[in-house]
Amino acid sequence: MKIQSTIKIKSMIIIIGSILFSTFATYNLLKEIYLFSDEKQLKNYITGILEDVGSDLEHIEESMDWTLENLNLTIYAHDNVESLLAVIPSNIDSVKVLSDQDIQQLKSGNTVINKIKTVDSSMDLLLFIHPVTENNNIEKLLFMHLPSNNMETSEELFAGLTTILAVLLAALALMVNKKVFKQSWSDFEHIKSATIAVSNGNLDAKIKGNSGDEVGELTELFNAMSTNLKDEQIRVKEFMEDFSHEVKTPITLVTNYNQALMDNLLHTPEDQQKCYQLIDREMNRMQKLVQNFLDFTKLDVQSVELVKQPIVFAQFVEDVMLKYELIFKEKKIKLNMALDYDVIISADEERLEQIIQNIIQNAIRYSKDDACIHISMKQKEASCVLAIADNGVGISEEHLAVITNRFVRVNKVRSRKEGGTGLGLSIVEKLMELHGGKLVIESQLGEGTTIKLEFPVLLD
Q1: Which of 356, 362, 419, 368 is nearest to 393 (CA)?
Q2: How many CB atoms lie within 10 A of CB 216?
Q3: Among 68, 117, 356, 411, which has the highest number of CB atoms less than 10 A from its own CB?
Q4: Residue 393: how many CA atoms within 13 Å on its side-chain side?
Q5: Between β-strands 309-312 and 344-347, what pairing exists: parallel, antiparallel or unpaired?
Q6: Which whole-number Å values give the CA distances from 454 to 175, 375, 377, 424, in the listed order?
Q7: Which residue ranges of the chain lie beneath pLDDT 50?
Q8: In this prediction, what percent of the chain has a pLDDT beyond 90?
Q9: Hey, how many other C-beta atoms are within 10 angstroms of the C-beta on 364?
Q10: Would you list the DSSP string of 258-292?
Q11: pTM of the model
């Protein structure tokens, strides 16, 4: 339950944290909007009062008394800016009351409203200074100050409502979290169980269900991985069986031939020579099997280093084909070549020959009657393509997709009959990658196969 509990806790913390943060941000935003709106209404209200009071200079004192008595608002009247500043309360910095720009506004007949803090910063004050003008001259300056944060009760109520909202949202989040993630928590438990099963060697383990989300995607990937591991395990098992068979056959033959020689069962020099040739053939066969396995192992762990040099590619292909001349005659295989002798590539001679030999041996191994192998080479810009085509048994579309996978052989029965371990094309593909090239396989079942080897060329 550890995984499930951890996910629950983390998801709850994230969701609740997000809600609290959103609530806090919303609270502060609404508070600012609320206070701004309230303050704006207050400014409009006081400005209106000051305009009404100053609208009649003859009765201005009576209007100020009435305002104090009925509205509990104290209005001060001054003849000029200097007298106004002289009576500013001691807890207000008089320097901040009016700026030069404010004075110009007053001379223009506009009300000046400033928001300043008291000297001890304990309170925000709104200062209202309204000019009463006559014939474009300032006759009176009406002054009033009020605390702008006199709405504590409203703020406390607002904060209380916001807290209640946060609690309700958190409770709702817990309910949604439990409902939404319930299936995911269950899926994680299944993933945990299946992972333990696979780590213990049970590659048949699968995760049931698919939630359609990221957890479901993880489930699909895990099941695909499990299937691939199972298929790989089967291929490795088959490979080991085939490899054992392939090695066992020449060992048995060599042992029998050697025993016949030791027991002097072969009396004529001709029979003895034939026996030596058979032993040599089987030893070569076994050496190739072991070498293929060692090569693949080195390539798989990327421990092969190439010794590259410039090679006239067409001449090199011809030289390799000369080694198969007797085999072509013996099996009645027709060979056609159309090569571009201007192509020069940078390659490791030994590994390049191994690439070509693996492909040619496959073409011979899976050839039919009236077999024909056609080899062509063309250069295109900075690369060249060596195409080796046969009219053999071909490869099905299903097998073509996995033919270069290690340990895969298209026809297990035929492969065992003809020899091989299923590593040839895997080795070719890896060697092509080391040469900076590319392997392309085109085939049609029953009609033949074309292997294309694309190499970068050396340009003048």
Answers
A1: 368
A2: 16
A3: 356
A4: 13
A5: antiparallel
A6: 61, 13, 10, 17
A7: 1-4, 150-153, 410-419
A8: 15
A9: 19
A10: HHHHHTT---SHHHHHHHHHHHHHHHHHHHHHHHH
A11: 0.46
User: Rounded to 5 degrees, what are φ and ψ at 264?
Assistant: 55, 40
Taking alpha carbons only, the member of 87, 86, 88, 65 closest to residue 75 is 65
- Bridge partners for 335 per DSSP: 373
- Biggest CA–CA distance in the chain, Å, is 154
Closest CA to 443 of 410, 400, 405: 400
Cβ atoms within 10 Å of 204's Cβ, excluding its own: 9
β partners of residue 133: 138
Specify the DSSP class assigned to residue 77.
E
Backbone torsions φ then ψ of 388, nearest 5 degrees: -115, 110
For residue 245, the Cα-to-chain-centroid distance in whole angstroms is 44
Contact 236, 408 (CB under 8 A): no
Pick the closest to residue 430 from 375, 364, 355 (CA basis).
355
**What is the structure's pLDDT at 346?**
93
Length of the chain as a residue count:
460
Residue 206 amino acid letter? K
Residue 150: phi and psi, rounded to 5, are -100, 25
User: What own/partner pairs with CB < 8 Å and gap ≥ 24 does 312-315 have?
Assistant: 312/341, 312/343, 312/344, 313/339, 313/340, 313/343, 313/344, 313/345, 313/377, 313/384, 313/386, 313/455, 314/339, 314/340, 314/341, 314/343, 314/377, 315/341
pLDDT of residue 454: 94
Q: b/e map of 387-398 (b: 16 or more CB within 10 Å)? A: bbbbbbbbbeee
Distance of CA 179 to the CA centre of its chain: 29
331 contacts 367 by C-beta, under 8 angstroms = yes
H/E stretch holding 452 reads strand 448-456
Three-state secondary structure call for residue 56: coil
Structure tokens at 218: 């993880």
Rounded CA-CA distance 215/202 in Å is 22
The per-residue pLDDT for 385 is 94
Query: Taking the CB of residue 55, how many other CB atoms lie within 10 A of it?
Result: 11
Buried b vs exposed e over 123-146: b needs ≥16 C-beta within 10 Å? Answer: eebbbbbbbbeeeeebebbbbbbe
From the list 420, 426, 419, 421, the residue with the least C-alpha distance to 403 is: 426
63 sits in which H/E element: helix 60-71
